[in-house]
Amino acid sequence: MANTNGLIHPLWVRITHWLNALAVIVLAMSGWRIYDASPFLGFSIPAYLTLGGWLGGAIQWHFAAMWLLTVNGLVYLAANVISRRLFDKFFPLSLSGLFGDLSAALKGKLSHADLNQYNTVQRTAYLFVMLDSVLLVLSGLVLWKSVQFPLLREWLGGYEAARRVHFFGMAGLVAFAGIHLIMVALVPRTLLAMIRGR
Amino acid sequence: MIKKPKQLLVPNSEALVNEALKDLGQRIEQPMRRAFLQRALSLGGLSLLSGCAVVDEESVESALLKVSRFNDKAQAWLFDPNRLAPTYPESMITRPFPFNAYYGEDEIREVDEASYRLEVTGLVADKQAWTLAELRTMPQETQVTRHICVEGWSAIGKWGGVRFASFLRRIGADTTAKYVGFKCADDYYTSIDMPTALHPQTLLTLTYDDQPLPPRYGFPMKLRMPTKLGYKNPKHIQAIFVTNTYPGGYWEDQGYNWFGGS
User: Fold this and answer.
1) Cβ pair A60:B251 closer than 8 A
2) Strand partners, B154
3) What pLDDT is stored for residue B41 in this prediction?
4) What range does the domain containing A171 cover?
5) Could you tell me where the DSSP H helices lie in B79-217?
6) Does A4 reside within a domain?
7) The architecture CATH gives domain B83-254
8) Using CB atoms, which residue from A38, A57, A159 is nearest to B255?
9) Cβ–Cβ below 8 Å for B65 and A57
């Protein structure tokens, strides 16, 4: 993806990125309210962090934003594959590269001079988010329509197991978002690039 | 959860006052609930869109309701009339099976079997009311299925009764009609789509765990649908009607999704 005009993120990446951010915020906050209706892990999420006001409102938000996440995610993945950006930007991956970049990052020595190049930690994290989002959509489908998707339900270990998968999938996504925001704060140019494209 | 206020009544005037209160109560309570819903949704809307100075909260709310209606259609389209919900061995039954209603366990309604009649109205050929004894003469079947609550939890139970499709055919219901509605002795009401009403696992249940349905699980009868969430499964059913006019439901009118399928 070498660009002559200095474009780091094409327009479709920026649009799908911000739509995805909106969908994830709505889904996470409304999802926490839904979790609070029957908190199976023994703790509740503070109401002020949740969206929807009550269970019925939270479900309305959740089951609206799920379409945004899914449709936007499919557009992103399709464009990523068709443009070959997926293969150019996120591969190759190697364990030694991951550990090397990780230790460099922790020592503060990982270079961000070229925003066009994702280091191995970034590649791994972004690929994790893609796969985790797919898992969230699939486990969400089982929770929403467990009778209508029997193969998916059995593959995830049944309805109750799918609840756990969905929750921990969310936890993974929120953990990523937290680290992602810290990284953006450390290298603010990346925020500008995701807005302006360069 | 919204709980119904307790009504303290003189016993002999109970029936009369009850009737009046029921009419009045629905008129008073519904707008209050709606106001509650609006407030609740608005708060959520505000916290989300707090960056914007002017937010038309009502339009956010009506947009969410439109998506909910769209989700009804999506679920009707996904619903496969021949796909069965999983069944389980009796060893997996959840004991005790949880009680759940819009009121607490101390307010469970007691229905008198001797005077009980199931009313059947709307688009049906035979509008004669049914006694429990008559319903027990119809072929009975049992199922051990998972009840999934809109709150997320689930529990496995064993219900027995009359296949609802057989009952609808027996009373000559117009099975091309859109909705089947239910009115219950605990003032609950709900409605379902005809394809779900005709699903082979939709049972008009008279027993729980091989015993006559106890009051806490909906005596004298509960409609059991393992293809729908718990709030779609009415208990203490007093009247069943077939209609093409959208009847709504107790929770559905407050914002729960109408189709509520699983």
Assistant:
1) no
2) B148
3) 52
4) 11-196
5) 132-137, 164-170, 194-197
6) no
7) Alpha-Beta Complex (3.90)
8) A57
9) no
Pairing of strands B237-243, B119-122: parallel
Q: Is A157's Cβ below 8 Å from some Cβ in B?
A: no
User: Per-residue confidence at B15, pLDDT binned at 50, 70, 90?
Assistant: low
Which B residues in the span 206-245 are in contact with A, Cβ-Cβ below 8 Å? 226-227
The full DSSP string for B17-39 is HHHHHHHHHHHHHHHHHHHHHHH
How far is it between the farthest Cα atoms of chain B?
A: 65
Q: What is the pLDDT of residue B105?
A: 95
pLDDT of B96 above 80? yes
Task: Report residue B60's pLDDT band, with 50, 70 and 90 as the boundaries.
Answer: very high
Kindly state the average pLDDT of the residues B215-221: 97
Q: Is residue A124 part of a domain?
A: yes
Where exactly are the structural domains of chain B? 11-75, 83-254
Tokens representing B29 are 């309570």
Taking residues B226-245, report their average pLDDT: 98
Q: Is residue A192 a part of any domain in this protein?
A: yes
Structural domain total, chain A: 1
> At residue B206, does pLDDT exceed 50?
yes
Regions of chain A with pLDDT less than 50:
1-3
Q: In angstroms, rounded to a whole number, what is the distance separating the alpha carbons of residues B75 and A63?
A: 12
Q: With contact defined as beta carbons under 8 Å apart, do B189 and B254 qualify?
A: no
Q: Coil, strand, or helix at residue B106?
A: helix
pLDDT at B81 over 80: yes
Confidence of residue B19 (pLDDT cuts 50, 70, 90): low
What CATH number is given to the structural domain containing A23?
Answer: 1.20.950.20
Q: What is the pLDDT of residue A109?
A: 84
Q: Residue B150: list chain A partners with CB under 8 A.
A: 37, 55, 59
* Contact flag B41-A40 (C-beta cutoff 8 Å): no
